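FAQ

Q: What does a record look like?
A: Structure on top, sequence underneath. For example:
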């Protein structure tokens, strides 16, 4: 604008000052970056609004950009890929032990637990008319199971690693637990007074849309993984049903964020999808945390994106909205620059 003013003042016929001022103001008006200032916020506003109509809530605009660049999607298993409503399907008692007694002690130990697997065991005991004894000294050990005293007996109920940590042998039940895991059951061991009494198989079926969503993500060129605290065999069986190739099994709740960090160290841009309290650190660690609205408030608070309808299909909508919004922003900026490039010389 200053150069325009000086040039017109020098070369224009009289009254030069009028031509110089008009041309200078024209350059200033054209160069005012209104279009560039609107290019991004307008696109984000429209994109976020459209996503909300599709059941996807973006907590901040940056999440749109981050989600458009992810190349890896990692799912939590329980309650995310699966329904989160497990059911007791098998009960294998050790030699010389009664199945009803195994279920009775398991229900007693789990009476104070809020875990979905505990709910499945308690529901099975009620369905079979088994009374639940009162437990004392209850202790929940995240990623392992529970310890309690039931009718004066020390009871352990949980993963094989819990019994191994407490020095209880599971050799007599190992083959039956392996068979359960290969059928996508979660094996839960029961030990009473230092002896393994039985193993319970709990099934948590996939959500109806899980396999289709995983296939659609892979078709878009994304790497898809799954994390689970279950045994390797159980996790791999579920992963096969869902079509997931990369599985991290036997992950403790505190280890999910570390697993995400390892992927990031490999140069991956990760979106983590979860629903539980123990998913919150991983949701916060990932480039984009995606929470399922049917999950816990803590998970939703830690996430950047919430699937408000609890349907994993919303993840595909979120990715599509994010990518289209970024394309719109780039197109908006392109035309804003073209406008200036063409019209500033004309105004001058």
């Amino acid at each position: 604008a200053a150069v325009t003013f000086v040039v017109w003042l020098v070369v224009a016929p009289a009254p030069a000052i009028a031509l110089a001022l008009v041309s200078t103001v024209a350059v200033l008006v054209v160069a005012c970056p209104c279009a560039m200032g609107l290019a991004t916020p307008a696109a984000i506003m429209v994109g976020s609004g459209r996503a909300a109509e599709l059941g996807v809530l973006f907590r901040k605009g940056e999440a749109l950009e981050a989600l458009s660049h992810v190349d890896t999607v990692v799912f939590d298993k329980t309650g995310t890929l699966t329904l989160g409503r497990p059911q007791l399907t098998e009960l294998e008692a050790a030699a010389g032990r009664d199945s009803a007694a195994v279920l009775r002690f398991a229900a007693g130990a789990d009476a104070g637990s809020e875990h979905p697997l505990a709910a499945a065991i308690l529901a099975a005991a009620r369905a079979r008319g088994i009374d639940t004894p009162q437990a004392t000294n209850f202790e929940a050990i995240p990623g392992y199971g529970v310890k309690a005293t039931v009718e004066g007996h020390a009871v352990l109920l949980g993963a094989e690693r819990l019994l191994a940590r407490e020095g209880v042998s599971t050799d007599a039940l190992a083959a039956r637990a392996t068979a359960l895991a290969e059928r996508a059951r979660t094996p839960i061991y029961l030990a009473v007074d230092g002896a393994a009494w039985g193993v319970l198989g709990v099934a948590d079926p996939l959500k109806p849309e899980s396999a289709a969503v995983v296939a659609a993500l892979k078709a878009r060129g994304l790497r898809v993984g799954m994390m689970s605290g279950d045994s390797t065999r159980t996790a791999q069986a579920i992963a096969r049903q869902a079509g997931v190739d990369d599985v991290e099994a036997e992950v403790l709740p505190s280890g999910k964020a570390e697993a995400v960090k390892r992927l990031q160290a490999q140069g991956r841009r990760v979106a983590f999808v979860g629903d539980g309290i123990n998913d919150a650190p991983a949701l916060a660690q990932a480039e984009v945390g995606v929470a399922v609205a049917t999950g816990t408030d803590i998970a939703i608070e830690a996430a950047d994106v919430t699937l408000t309808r609890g349907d994993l299909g919303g993840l595909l909508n979120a990715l599509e909205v994010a990518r289209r919004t970024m394309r719109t922003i780039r197109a908006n900026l392109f035309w804003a620059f073209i406008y200036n490039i063409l019209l500033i010389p004309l105004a001058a």
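Q: Is there anything notable about this one?
A: The chain is about 50% helix and 20% strand.
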